[in-house]
């Protein structure tokens, strides 16, 4: 056991270290967090997304998506997400809440230009994602920079649970500069 799990600062740093690993290592559990939104009619919605960046200093994360997807309609009503990851190797559950800014069009064009062709296939489909179709393959992938969106997530709250020999749980908030507070697990 190291102080990475025994101190509030250590646990907080560990969570961001793991999120950073997810960005760079396609096989790491933090690569594919579950991202939840609230639908316009107030239902929770969860889906897998690729974590594109994680910045501890700014408390920021980024995700990429299709502007026409259902989650965008939800984010336009309620620009908030929750993220969940369970990293079995470190026995750490990471949960966080963030507010979201949606960016598309010219400001993200330079980023789009760097995305390889195969990855662009995820952004742009006809008909739009979630449209009813008569048979399973009644759609065409149509990569389109106009439907590419970046979600800039400003983390507001983090909840960490470490299931080591002892169980530890802590909460962190942007409002107190991530000082952290132990919670009963
Ligand atoms: C492994 C995996 C990775 C995915 N990555 C993304 C992603 O980065 N962005 C995204 O918008 N959807 C991604 N998806 C698809 C979403 O999980 C979801 O099916 C799709 O975005 C439609 O969700 P929505 O109807 O809630 O908008 C991924 C799915 C899987 C299985």
Q: Total domains, how many?
A: 1
- The ordered string of helix (H) and strand (E) elements is HHEEEEHEEHHEEEEE
In total, the number of strands is 11
How much of the residues is beta strand, in percent?
35-45%
**End-to-end distance:** 18 Å
> CATH first level: which class?
Mainly Beta
| Rg on CA atoms, Å | 18 Å
CATH superfamily: Electron Transport, Fmn-binding Protein, Chain A
Query: Could you name the CATH topology?
Result: Pnp Oxidase, Chain A
Q: What's the CATH architecture?
A: Roll
How many helices? The count is 5
Q: Ligands bound here?
A: flavin mononucleotide
What average pLDDT do the residues reach? 96
User: What ranges have pLDDT less than 50 throughout 5 or more consecutive residues?
Assistant: none
SS-derived structural category: alpha+beta
Helix content: 10-25%
| Cα shape | elongated
Describe it:
- Helices cover 21% and strands 39% of the residues.
- The protein has 185 residues and is of the alpha+beta class.
- The chain has one domain (3-183): Electron Transport, Fmn-binding Protein, Chain A (Pnp Oxidase, Chain A), CATH 2.30.110.
- Strands 1, 2, 3, 4, 5, 6, 9, 10 and 11 form a 9-stranded antiparallel β-sheet that branches.
- It is elongated and about 50 Å long.
- The two termini are 18 Å apart.
- 23% of the residues are buried.
- The structure holds flavin mononucleotide.
- The site of flavin mononucleotide (FMN) has 15 residues, from strand 2, strand 4 and helix 3.
């Amino acid at each position: 056991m190291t102080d990475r799990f025994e101190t509030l600062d250590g646990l907080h740093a560990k969570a961001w270290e793991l999120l950073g690993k997810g960005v760079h290592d396609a096989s790491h559990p933090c690569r594919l967090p579950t991202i939840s939104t609230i639908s316009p009619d107030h239902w929770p919605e969860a889906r897998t997304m690729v974590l594109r960046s994680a910045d501890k200093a700014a408390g920021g994360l980024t995700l990429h998506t299709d502007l026409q997807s259902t989650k965008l309609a939800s984010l336009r009503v309620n620009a908030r997400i929750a993220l969940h990851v369970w990293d079995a190797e470190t026995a750490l559950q990471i949960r966080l809440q963030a507010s979201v800014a949606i960016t598309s069009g010219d400001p993200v064009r330079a980023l789009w230009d760097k995305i390889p062709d195969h990855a662009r296939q995820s952004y742009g489909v006809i008909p739009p994602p979630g449209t009813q179709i008569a048979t399973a393959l009644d759609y065409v992938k149509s990569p389109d920079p106009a439907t590419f969106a970046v979600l800039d997530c400003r983390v507001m709250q983090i909840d960490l649970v470490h299931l080591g020999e002892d169980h530890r749980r802590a909460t962190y908030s942007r409002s107190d500069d991530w000082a952290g507070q132990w919670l009963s697990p």
